[in-house]
Design a protein that fits this description.
alpha/beta, DNA polymerase, domain 1, 4-stranded antiparallel sheet, disordered N terminus
Length: 272
């Protein structure tokens, strides 16, 4: 049974949330009949046809974006700075093994990956910032296609926001440097402190500032932390397949779909 059909039939996710899935296994067409609509789904076409019209099963008017791994490729600066912090405490780790630190709250991640207590995890974050703030933050760049897609989404009348666990000041700094800050109606990130704020709380704050309705809002993010945070905030999450998630991580976390690049994301959001 295809993933979408199973999820719809068992009530885990409403049919209106399924827009596209990047990993196709079958070449058949499935029809779902509901009181309000008929859904014809084809694995070969990568999207639903609703009452004969291809496109979104649901139109979102507020799009929130994660930052690390979604808007910006920040993995170099983050992994090098995590490595720097670990080495100060006699812990060696290859950069590739540290990609998981790009995005989630760092105190939590140090405790999860290295089994350290909270006090040491907080010290590791301070050591991380010792390198990251003057050097690592600039070892980054927007992903290809970001600026063009954001501009077209704005012109289409969608409300755009950033909802990131990254310190808000750093996200604003990088968006300013790239000339992207004015693409967004709101930018919400973690407030000053040792650990980053919870994703769900950041999402809810961004929604409140936008005046967004949960049913018409979606978060675009690249890790399970985004999907889980979006779910707790009561909204859907689209997986950014170009980001830092491990294979299968986004699907297991419950994203409604995974897109391969910004062109594909734009087609879904603009109902093309």
């Amino acid at each position: 049974m295809p993933f979408e059909k199973e999820m719809i039939e068992n009530g885990t996710v409403p049919a209106s949330f399924f827009l596209h899935r990047s990993n196709r296994n079958l070449n058949d067409t499935i029809t779902f009949n509901f009181p309000f609509s008929t859904f014809n789904y084809s694995d070969t076409e990568s999207h639903f046809a609703i009452n004969g019209r291809k496109g979104n099963a649901m139109r979102y008017n507020t799009i929130l974006f994660d930052f690390d791994g979604t808007l910006y490729d920040t993995v170099e600066g983050i992994t090098k700075s995590v490595q720097y912090a670990l080495e100060k405490h006699g812990i060696e780790a290859p950069l590739e093994a540290l990609r998981c630190f790009a995005g989630p709250p760092l105190v939590d991640k140090f405790m999860e990956v290295y089994g350290v207590d909270k006090a040491l995890a907080e010290q590791l974050v301070l050591d991380f910032r010792e390198r990251y703030q003057p050097i690592g933050v600039y070892e980054s760049a927007p992903f290809p296609g970001v600026g063009e897609t954001l501009l077209r989404l704005r012109k289409a009348g969608l409300r755009l926001g950033v909802a990131t666990s990254k310190p808000q000041a750093l996200a604003e700094l990088l968006l300013d440097r790239a000339g992207l800050r004015d693409r967004f109606h709101v930018i919400v990130g973690s407030k000053p402190g040792i650990n980053n704020d919870a994703k769900w709380a950041i999402v809810r704050e961004a929604m409140a500032l936008c005046g967004a309705e949960p049913a018409a809002t979606v978060l675009v993010g690249d890790t399970k932390y985004d999907a889980v945070g979006a779910a707790r905030a009561g909204i859907a999450c689209i997986g950014a397949g170009w980001g830092y998630a491990a294979p299968g991580e986004l699907e297991a976390a419950g994203v409604v779909c995974t897109v391969r690049d910004f062109d594909e994301l734009e087609k879904i959001l603009l109902d093309n």
